[in-house]
Write a structure and sequence with these properties.
308 residues, alpha/beta, 8-stranded mixed β-sheet, 9 helices, 44% helix
Length: 308
């Protein structure tokens, strides 16, 4: 492994981009040659200014800032970042996350196996403003942990988490600019190439869960619209994703029946069902292209606290 490239796509992320960069700098393994590429897309806040300040504190060769004048969507930003990346391994992460200690080392270790093409992380969701939303976040985290653990064991995992994952550069596909759920698309492409996708739960990343029910529905609706878009090309894969989510959600309700976790498990299932209905309605109106430049879920943009 000669070099790694961290790729961050950012749109109006002045609240959290500094925390994210601090986290990446702190967790970059000693002795590993690395670069951070931040692509800012049509930002109207201080995101560019903050990234430039970090460039001055480190070096422009370590942190590289690429600016798109107009907001063209996350796929466009990632295509630009990948085209400029010098690393053999790409580590993609959102602009509003914080890495847990040693997460990067855990993301890199599996690549000693040449059959591994992509390594995905464990996501730690937090929600401080709403007790119910925090419980739903924990239920959702538990659901995905269970799905990925089972898929990992069976060797059929292809659903990486877009919050943080690593991938061999030559496997990263050119993304259609209007793709909505780009991490699922990447997972399918890697899986079809014959390389393995590994879930590494020791590589953990913190992010903020929506702080109210309406924002949860908005976020989940976008994900389902994205899967409907991809399903037109890869129907079997998306049908399997939906089946896994439905079965695991139902399993959580059954396992937690009569306990304190019953309500959040049921709410998680209900919100998933509602989001699918809304997504299907949107798909029928042929307005899916709007969603690749989806408005931010502002309640997820609260300042992250490192190490919390």
């Amino acid at each position: 492994m000669n070099k790694i490239s961290f790729l961050i796509a950012a749109y109006n992320e002045e609240v959290n981009i500094g925390k994210t960069l601090n986290s990446v700098i702190k967790e970059t393994p000693i002795g590993v040659e690395a670069e951070i590429i931040v692509v800012t897309s049509g930002c109207t806040d201080r995101t560019n200014e903050i990234v430039k300040q970090y460039q001055e504190q480190t070096s422009s060769s370590f942190i590289r800032l690429l600016n798109e004048k107009h907001r063209n969507g996350k796929a466009s930003a990632l295509n630009l970042a990948t085209a400029n990346a010098m690393g053999d391994i790409l580590i993609l992460l959102d602009a509003d996350v914080v890495l847990e200690h040693n997460s990067i080392q855990y993301l890199l270790q599996p690549f000693s196996d040449t059959s591994v093409g992509l390594v995905c992380s464990k996501v730690l969701l937090s929600c401080e403003k709403s007790k119910l939303c925090n419980q739903i976040a924990k239920s959702r985290s538990s659901m995905w942990d269970s799905i990925r653990e089972k898929e990992n064991t069976s060797g059929s995992l292809f659903i990486p988490s877009g919050y943080l994952y690593s991938i061999r550069k030559f496997l990263f596909p050119m993304l259609p600019n209007n793709i909505i759920d780009e991490d699922v698309y990447v997972g399918i492409m890697v899986s079809q190439s014959g390389y393995k996708i590994i879930y590494e739960p020791s590589a953990m990343v913190q992010t903020i869960f929506p702080q109210n029910i309406l924002d949860i529905i908005r976020q989940r609706t976008r994900n389902h619209v994205g899967r409907l878009q991809i399903s037109k090309l890869y129907c079997k894969h998306i049908a399997r994703v939906n089946q896994l989510i439905a079965l695991e959600s139902l399993n959580q309700v059954r396992e937690n029946f009569g306990t304190k976790s019953e309500m959040p498990a049921f709410m998680n299932l209900l919100l998933e069902f509602l989001a699918r209905i809304f997504a299907k309605a949107i798909d029928l109106t042929n307005r899916t292209d709007f969603f690749y430049k989806w408005p931010q879920i502002l309640s997820t943009k609260k300042v992250l606290i490192e190490g919390k």
